[in-house]
Design a protein that fits this description.
4 copies of one chain form a homotetramer.
Chain A (H helix, E strand, L loop, with lengths): L3 H16 L1 H4 L2 H13 L2 E6 L1 H16 L3 E4 L13 E5 L6 H13 L2 E6 L5 H5 L2 E4 L14 H4 L3 H4 L4 H22 L3 H7 L5
Parallel strand pairs in A: 1-2, 1-3, 3-4, 4-5
Helix pairs in contact in A: 4-9
Chain lengths: 198, 198, 198, 198
Amino acid sequence: MVGMEETLRAMDEILAFLRTLPKKLKSKEVENFIQALLNTRRVFVVGAGRSGLVVKAFATRLMHLDFEVYVVGETITPALRPGDLLVALSGSGETDLIVESAKIAKKVGARVAAITSYPRSSLAKLADLVVTLPGRTKIASIKGFVRRELYGEYASLTPLGTLFEISSMVFLDAIISSLMVKLGKKEEDLRAKHATIE
Amino acid sequence: MVGMEETLRAMDEILAFLRTLPKKLKSKEVENFIQALLNTRRVFVVGAGRSGLVVKAFATRLMHLDFEVYVVGETITPALRPGDLLVALSGSGETDLIVESAKIAKKVGARVAAITSYPRSSLAKLADLVVTLPGRTKIASIKGFVRRELYGEYASLTPLGTLFEISSMVFLDAIISSLMVKLGKKEEDLRAKHATIE
Amino acid sequence: MVGMEETLRAMDEILAFLRTLPKKLKSKEVENFIQALLNTRRVFVVGAGRSGLVVKAFATRLMHLDFEVYVVGETITPALRPGDLLVALSGSGETDLIVESAKIAKKVGARVAAITSYPRSSLAKLADLVVTLPGRTKIASIKGFVRRELYGEYASLTPLGTLFEISSMVFLDAIISSLMVKLGKKEEDLRAKHATIE
Amino acid sequence: MVGMEETLRAMDEILAFLRTLPKKLKSKEVENFIQALLNTRRVFVVGAGRSGLVVKAFATRLMHLDFEVYVVGETITPALRPGDLLVALSGSGETDLIVESAKIAKKVGARVAAITSYPRSSLAKLADLVVTLPGRTKIASIKGFVRRELYGEYASLTPLGTLFEISSMVFLDAIISSLMVKLGKKEEDLRAKHATIE
């Protein structure tokens, strides 16, 4: 009665979108990103709003994997140094404070990895490497996403950055898997680092 | 070379898991949850670690929908009152501080909605309503998930609460869609409330 | 043996500095700030690092006093609207992301109250009203603070923004007192709004 | 006109209270605390509400001093290990989630340092070491504070935990000074670690 149908339909939309994710990934971009993570001594992450939450979820797992990782804006985040990697997540690539953060990072000599739907955005242009993830911040970004034609109400089912945020979460958790394999880490290794007080 | 293959395989696992999500949802639970959200004056959310991030992403969208919503532990979160709804997210349903939070909420006369993989957990038992979401905190939770047999390394591909956290994010974003339909909200309405400074 | 003497000496320095605070306050600035708080419908606060923590402590008490108040960067912070008041705290008045936030606020038509040691800083220039609080970000800011001459190690006893941050905390808690008097609020009223789950 | 008088009077109250702070400190407690900080490999801090903000301000400076320090509840906080030190700040010593956190820490074999006004509180009883700081959570805590007799409205001038929170901030910043002296750190050393992006 109250909402099961709409819930399932929205879930269907999200899953349909996610199914297109693997073939939209660019091999070169993904591999550069993994390489950059493996090659840096310290990773910093930054994102605003819901994108900030997704990038924090990624940082948690990097910590589990024994990376030295920091979240911009949290209490114990130290100064960036040359050679550090800043992972900046922004669907539009135009979020003011994120672009500003990337500029500061570049000034300091850190490298910037941008995860965005817009490879020509201000953030992407500043970045040393880019991972392009599909989203739907502007109409152009869903060109070719045929299901949209079937459901007129598509836009309202997954408002604003929803699809980018979920795609990012799935993508970054897949990256964690890759790193586990590369680093020979098992689930028990991660569990051993999992926060005790919560 | 470096990780594209593993990335795709992990993504495949996550998507395979998500595909099973719709049919695992219990209609009654979902509808009770939506009804509880629509019937309450104020929503509080709580979760620890990555589950905390997922429930914050939900709170952001509830705010966009004009709900009065608060995150336990953030700066401006006021006292709970009888009639408030606490949405508590915990895969295991045994996270100490979350169970403790739910106990406090019950003492005050608030209602508790538990989102968990374990309908018999301490959290679920305390709760007024439960939404059971699949996860893989213990082996039992993936019974019937056949792909596991195909990939021996399954466990390491999506460590710890990963599948529960992604499932929750997708589920809660689908709930937002339902609420949009119920409340007649359009994407423009949400955009108008979207944080300006970020 | 281990540090009691140094602890007391540092405390002495801090208290000596705080004693000079009341006579450094400018009546007009303080009254404008209180008036601005009383006249606005919604208050937003922003600050970076330890200044961010101080301004959050202020926001908590504003919430206790029934103000509608939000912290920039937290989960449920909505869009700024014309007429909102942004309270921005920065000792130097040059903190990048805070100056950027103030710019965005001005663009939207919100008012900005700057709390800073530098009334000619970028932040102060952008602001509609300024409260000048003593600090010691640069040497000039402690001109006339005679105790410095007595203790050569002064600078190291209260490093970086320490004195500004403590001064701000004391000042903003005194502002809360003023607001309580103006609004006829008693401690019981604040206690009734104090977060239940913590 | 609007509030300058009340602001100054409240500030006066706070300063009068702070003046009593040095002679209320117990040498033994302070020295044990400093020793514990110097002897541990990793420090974790925890506090709720405004006390949480004060303890985060302390953590920031510990990071500047090259301590390995974490805030309970933040993104990259790892598992506690035997030998870690948990610094728990609670005026009443009865804050639910803080007492619960201390219990978990003890179970794991970590040490707990309680900073509280109540040396007989649940938190203090659990703790390996206690620092007693004056506050005014209950009437007993201000016995002997004579200015109270002069201002009937005292209680409303510094509501709830205000005096404890400010005392803690001043005390912990004085501890930072002691640590700087012990460790031979200068302001420049701290500045070098100060967050770049803010």
